[in-house]
Design goal:
Layout: E1 3-5, H1 12-15, E2 30-35, H2 50-59, E3 64-66, E4 79-81, E5 84-91, E6 94-99, H3 113-119, H4 122-126, H5 135-139, E7 142-149, E8 152-157, H6 178-191, E9 199-205, E10 209-214, E11 227-232, H7 236-244, E12 250-251, H8 259-263, E13 268-283, H9 293-301, H10 305-313, H11 343-352, E14 360-365, H12 372-386, E15 390-395, H13 398-401, E16 408-414, H14 424-428, H15 448-459, H16 463-480, E17 483-496, E18 499-501, E19 516-518
Parallel strand pairs: 2-11, 2-12, 14-15, 14-16
Antiparallel strand pairs: 1-5, 3-4, 5-6, 6-8, 7-8, 9-10, 10-11, 12-17, 13-16, 13-17, 18-19
Helix pairs in contact: 9-11, 15-16
Length: about 525
């Protein structure tokens, strides 16, 4: 079957951006954003966190974009052109992607098909000695990426790939300059990135601020801001004060109890959005007694998620099924049973386990997730009621959170590709972030049966058969319980009046001309 995808109406904003009247550079405003944390750099593979993606989205462009802006909620799932202009399936295992020829990197170097092929090729993404360790999570189905001509790149997969175009919407869907990347190496590139995006890195002061400046030669038109400054302000009160006194134009990570106060200020309003990311408690199955699945099951059933959501978010956010999200569209299994609070069931499961009252260490990163200290305290009390003794340890960094000695830790699952393979594959697939032994979140070894099913999920084209494989995977996770799904994240952005901007249902903050305007 031959499939050909071209630009659609939803991407008109991108295609027509170049006709926006060009303002004198000095007339454009500086946008200053208060964030709870800054990333440690800007390489896409090293900064998949919420702190990282909100910045890398402005420095880089993806090969194919997900049209988050396509509906009022910011959760659009349609795939639209970006660096790629069109893509077509030429055989069961081969695709061709046409690319723009008018794109230059932020140093003035023209982007070429060779740069695209390198960005998703064996050396970078999926070979045994790949530079991006997480690359095979997204592109492990590839066997060849090669240049056809100056505006065409060929991709070959090891088996039919039912979600080939969607793969490029992942956090590693960015195009990087081959020669410069190899010259700098991943660590050098992390601190001195060059992309094709609308803003380029100008200055970085760790733990203080990141300053981006307009890429005036951006292929998508003149960016609406002259500069974007991300200031690290860990305390929520400091971010709110800065927003209301005019020092900041936007802030992130507001707790819902502050929404009415900000909305009534006459200075700014809060824009809440449900994120395609769920807060979870990852269970370290390598640390006894957490190797006992009955204990893990008891921990799940002891959690009253609805009570947490009602008390801390006013019931605004969503309680997902394990790895089964509404954003999966027609593949969302709405009728699948979802674990729920049952204290007696938790106690019965605990009685089946070998747990003897040992203190279990639960680590979280302080101030990183809004309200999470309170969430941890509620969880601690709920587990206590079931007879499980948990100690909370608050750490400053994720590396400290995942250091040896923890039984469980705060983590998240992100729907990074709009398909049922995610977040399942990037969390618990063969190269998943909690399965790979060199990953910080390493906490579970899935069975060969589970990994075989993952492979089938990624290569099965028949829809009904694919859903059957998906349900088998979910059944195994329901039994093994390597994590506790809590609730989908809510992000509350504070935005100064006079700024028109839409938040999306994932972490990137988009400041291109179709999503940012100033009065």
């Amino acid at each position: 079957m031959n499939k050909f995808i071209t630009a659609t109406a939803t991407v008109v904003a991108l295609a027509t951006a170049t006709v926006v009247p060009v303002l004198a550079q000095d007339d454009r405003p500086i946008l200053t954003i208060g964030v709870q944390s800054l990333s440690d750099g800007f390489d896409p593979s090293l900064n998949i966190s919420n702190a990282g993606q909100r910045i890398t989205a402005s420095i880089f462009d993806k090969l194919i974009s997900r049209a988050y802006w396509g509906n009022e909620s910011g959760a659009g799932a349609e795939l639209v052109p970006s660096i790629a202009t069109a893509w077509r399936q030429v055989s069961d295992t081969q695709w061709e992607v046409d690319i723009r020829t008018d794109v230059v990197f932020q140093d003035g170097t023209p982007m070429t098909a060779e740069d695209v092929a390198f960005s998703f090729g064996e050396q970078m993404m999926w070979g045994p000695d790949r530079i991006y360790k997480a690359g095979s999570t997204y592109y492990g189905t590839f066997t060849d990426v090669s240049v056809v001509d100056e505006d065409t790149v060929s991709f070959t997969t090891k088996a039919p790939d039912p979600i080939f175009p969607a793969r490029f919407t992942s956090p590693l869907g960015m195009v990087v300059p081959k020669a410069y990347f190899l010259e700098q190496g991943i660590e050098g590139f992390n601190l001195k990135p060059i992309g094709t995006g609308p803003y380029k890195l100008e200055e970085y002061k760790p733990d203080e601020y990141v300053r981006l400046v307009s890429n005036d030669k951006y292929w998508g038109g003149l960016p609406p801001a002259r500069e974007i400054i991300f200031r690290e302000i860990p305390e929520e009160a400091g971010r709110i004060t800065g927003l209301l006194n005019g020092e900041l134009d936007m802030i992130v990570s507001i707790t819902p109890d502050q929404q009415a106060f900000i909305d009534s200020s006459g200075v700014a309003t809060v824009k809440p959005v449900v994120i395609d990311n769920s807060r979870v408690v990852a269970l370290n199955t390598f640390e006894p007694p957490m190797d006992d699945k009955y204990l893990r099951q008891a921990l799940v059933w002891a959690v009253d998620r609805e009570a947490i959501v009602d008390a801390l978010w006013g019931g605004q956010n969503r309680i997902p099924h394990d790895f089964n999200f509404v954003s999966h569209g027609e593949d969302y299994l709405a009728d699948r049973p979802n674990e729920h609070y049952d204290l007696e069931e938790a106690k019965e499961l605990l009685a089946k386990s070998d747990y003897n009252g040992e203190e279990l260490i639960f680590r979280i990163q302080g101030g990183y997730y809004a309200n999470y200290e309170q969430v941890a305290q509620v969880l601690q009390q709920q587990w206590k009621e079931a007879g499980i003794n948990v100690k909370i340890e608050i750490r400053d960094t994720f590396d400290e959170v995942t250091a040896p000695g923890k039984h469980m830790f705060a983590h998240s699952n992100g729907v990074q590709i709009p398909d049922i393979t995610h977040p399942l594959v990037n969390i618990y697939g063969p190269e998943g972030i909690r399965v790979r032994s060199d990953a910080a979140g390493y906490s579970w070894d899935p069975s060969p049966e589970f990994l075989d099913l993952i492979s089938k999920l990624e290569t099965t084209v028949d829809h009904d058969a694919r859903i059957g494989v998906y349900e088998q995977l979910l059944d195994i996770l329901d039994d093994e319980r390597p994590q506790i799904e809590l609730f989908q994240a809510m992000e509350y952005y504070g935005v100064r009046n006079g700024i028109e901007w839409k938040p999306y249902s994932f972490w990137p903050m988009d400041f291109r001309s179709y999503n940012l305007k100033f009065d």
